[in-house]
Amino acid sequence: MYNNAPHRVLDFQHRTPGNLRAFVQAKIRNLRSGSSTEVRFSSTENIERATLEDHEMEYLYSDGDMHHFMNTENYDQIVLDAESLGEATNYLTQGTKIQVQFFEGAPIGVELPPAVELTVVETTPELKGATASNSPKPAKLETGVTVQVPPFVKEGDRIRVDPSKGVYLERVK
């Protein structure tokens, strides 16, 4: 909690400059508005920890910029807009289970699984005999996002992608 609003720490550094007092330089993001700021905390300052509730939700469908999710425990449904989901919209397919974080009953953030399985819908064909050049090629996935994949990946293949970095992990059999 910072300025009576929940924030997420994006990056921090503990600094002890010469003979001055130590402090922590932190980059934080407001979970309600999405704005990022840099703040400096003294080493003796106490920070209140925001209590967030995590609920497993299943992605159902999208209608325009609105994305519908269902709680897997009590079957309640919520709607999140594309802005609050951010890059997560590039990796959502029907049935994907994600963790949604709630603060005071309102959804404020999502956490994708460490790997998602998606189908390649468009990529260039592999060149015959070009085994020496193992340079990656772009592949468009079923959600519309493009990732770099090895040359042996073909259209129609299922691949596993790390959604936090947007990188290819492996081909799914």
3D architecture notes:
This protein is mainly β and 173 residues long. The chain has 3 domains: 7-42, SH3 type barrels, CATH 2.30.30.30; 53-111, Nucleic acid-binding proteins (OB fold (Dihydrolipoamide Acetyltransferase, E2P)), CATH 2.40.50.140; 116-172, Nucleic acid-binding proteins (OB fold (Dihydrolipoamide Acetyltransferase, E2P), Beta Barrel), CATH 2.40.50.140. 2% of the residues lie in helices and 50% in strands. The chain contains 1 helix and 13 strands; from the N terminus they run E-E-E-E-E-E-H-E-E-E-E-E-E-E. A 5-stranded antiparallel beta sheet has the order 6-5-4-7-8. The chain has a 5-stranded antiparallel beta sheet with strand order 11-10-9-12-13, with no helix packed on it. A 3-stranded antiparallel beta sheet has the order 1-2-3, with no helix packed on it. The longest helix has 4 residues, at 82-85. The protein is flat.
Write a compact overview of the structure shown.
The protein is mainly β and 173 residues long.
